[in-house]
């Protein structure tokens, strides 16, 4: 059998004053570290589910609708970015890549012509004619230049 003893409010206040005056600490708390039992088996998911009881239904519905709206906007944005990247990439491959290849071919052709001109100048120097001098029409071994009609 349990024995109950009645404690008056005055006695309780006297005990609190005595404890505060004995301790001398202004940061007194009724909560002690020994009473705190950290349940390590409880997961974060369990704690989040426990919040369901704390947050009112109206606020939970508002949070849920905001989260679903944010999710749908994110999916729409990701889809748009993906499709835009696909269009830009394929357009670049179809339009810019052939142009870049043709520019590279043109540069290679110009470099080849420049090299050929240098070799021709070197051959003319070996034969004895300077590259800046005009050709004399009667020299053997020299190609004749053709004049266009009307000149």
Note down, in words, how this protein is organized.
It is a single chain. With 151 residues, this protein is mainly α. The chain is built from three helices and no strands. It is rod-shaped. The termini are far apart.
Topology diagram in text:
Elements: H1 9-23, H2 44-54, H3 57-127
The unreliable regions are none
Number of strands: 0
Radius of gyration: 48 Å
* Integer average pLDDT: 79
Alpha-carbon distance between the termini?
137 Å
Counted by DSSP, the helix tally is 3
The biggest beta sheet reads: none
Structural class: mainly alpha
Mass-distribution shape: rod-shaped
The helix/strand series, from N terminus to C terminus, equals HHH
Strand proportion, as a percent range, falls in: under 5%
Helix content: 55-70%
What's the gist of this structure?
By secondary structure, the chain is mainly alpha-helical. Helices cover 64% and strands 0% of the residues. It contains three helices and no strands.
Name the features.
151 residues; mainly alpha; 3 helices
């Amino acid at each position: 059998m349990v024995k109950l003893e009645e404690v008056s409010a005055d006695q309780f206040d006297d005990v609190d004053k005595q404890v505060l005056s004995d301790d001398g600490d202004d940061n007194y708390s009724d909560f002690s570290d020994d009473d705190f039992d950290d349940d390590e088996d409880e997961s974060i998911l369990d704690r989040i589910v426990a919040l369901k009881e704390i947050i009112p239904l109206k606020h939970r519905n508002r949070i849920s609708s905001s989260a679903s709206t944010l999710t749908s906007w994110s999916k729409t944005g990701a889809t748009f970015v993906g499709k835009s990247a696909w269009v830009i990439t394929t357009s670049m491959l179809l339009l810019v890549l052939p142009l870049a290849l043709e520019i590279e071919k043109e540069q290679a052709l110009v470099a080849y012509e420049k090299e050929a001109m240098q070799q021709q100048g070197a051959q003319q120097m070996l034969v004895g004619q300077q590259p800046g001098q005009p050709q004399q029409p009667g020299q053997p071994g020299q190609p004749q230049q053709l004049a266009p009609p009307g000149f």
